[in-house]
Write a structure and sequence with these properties.
The chain is mainly alpha-helical. The chain has four helices and two strands, in the order αβαβαα. Strands 1-2 form a two-stranded parallel ribbon. The chain is globular, with a radius of gyration of 13 Å.
């Protein structure tokens, strides 16, 4: 089904969107990537760390790592 293909093969990014963190189980957390969009004026910088601390409190450490950095590293083959 298209939804299965999307879930397994399409990466999605988001920035100032706490809803995504709450709905991560309806998506595939292995395909979600948080973005900052620095230096654009609509980025979360310089409050990114505070925002993430508040929005990710209910996530496991593995989910946080995946969404905040591991997924992008895996996608782009970064160390």
């Amino acid at each position: 089904m298209p939804s299965e293909y999307f879930s397994e093969h399409i990466y999605t990014t988001f920035q100032d969107d706490w809803v995504v963190f709450r709905m991560k189980d309806m998506c595939n957390p292995r395909r979600l990537m948080w973005a900052n969009d620095f230096p654009h004026s609509d980025s979360t910088w310089p409050w990114s760390q505070e925002l993430l601390a508040k929005h990710t409190t209910h996530l496991t450490e593995e989910e946080k790592n995946r969404i905040l950095h591991d997924n992008v590293a895996e996608l782009y083959n970064l160390d």
